[in-house]
Amino acid sequence: MAKAEYIISLIKSHYNNEPERFTTVALQIAAHEAKLGHTFVADEIKTIIDKAKETKQRNKVFSPDLQGLIQENVPAVNLFDMIAPHDIKSKINRIISEFVQRDKLRKHDLENRRKILLSGPPGTGKTLTASILANELNLPLYTILMDKMVTKFMGETSAKLRQIFDLIEQRQGVYLFDEFDAIGGERSRDNDVGEMRRVLNSFLQFIERDNSDSLIIAITNNKELLDQALFRRFDDVILYNLPNLEEKEELLKNRLAQFSKKIKFKDLLPDINGLSHAEISLACIDAIKETVLNEKQPMNNQLILKAIKDRNAAYHK
């Protein structure tokens, strides 16, 4: 991108009241200057942006009707921190690339991927992905609390959904619908109630009409439970699985890096069984805590193995 295009993008984002877009373009300029060897200029731009982040008031007040329904987070995790198969990281990178260059796509009447469905077992990186996208794109992460969204009163849930999608239009961000099964279930199921079918129909209408600059992410632990009409409303579906042997070893090495000389990682793999990414990380933390609190207990394979077996017993009886 030429310097003139950077300036035009900055001006557009300013007058369109798009502060997040302004910051994204500024970071692109910093990267461009760094490639040219202008490290002082690049560092100066990054310093200004970092200071602005520190002083920026992120906790904006929501309308009274939405209080308690939305949780705002300021994620600080990068794609580099994620241990996942190449195809998942590639899809996340594609979402980021398309978002950053969405103006270029629009010149050709194309839209960037904005509506994403993430499916897979608990603890495999779905919520982490939403945090990564928000951080990489310098956007706030808003989590929609589905258990607070769904009520027993006729029409109330659909009304709340309408307010959520109005907010998505007005305030750019990454909007995470966690435990999406609560409203996204198959409409033809015999045990479904009429109110939930109406809620799902409302969601289908709102997401299809949405033309905002926000990212909408829905998470489910089992996509088989979802209504088939949902899938064509999403621009991309990313499927997550339990870690393979290579990922298990990488997770152990990553979490226990400070003790790597004392551990034979491959010897631990047969005992991990069906633990998720999150569960393996928790087992590593358990082992580290044990060595910190008990100075007579050095880090070794037996200690980690005990933590892994405890986690297996807790989650996979």
UniProtKB/TrEMBL annotation:
One of its GO terms (molecular function) is ATP hydrolysis activity. InterPro entries: AAA+_ATPase, AAA_ATPase_domain, ATPase_AAA_core, P-loop_NTPase. Residues 112-244 form the AAA+ ATPase domain. It holds the Pfam family AAA. This is ATPase family associated with various cellular activities (AAA). It comes from Chryseobacterium taichungense. The lineage of its organism: Bacteria, Pseudomonadati, Bacteroidota, Flavobacteriia, Flavobacteriales.
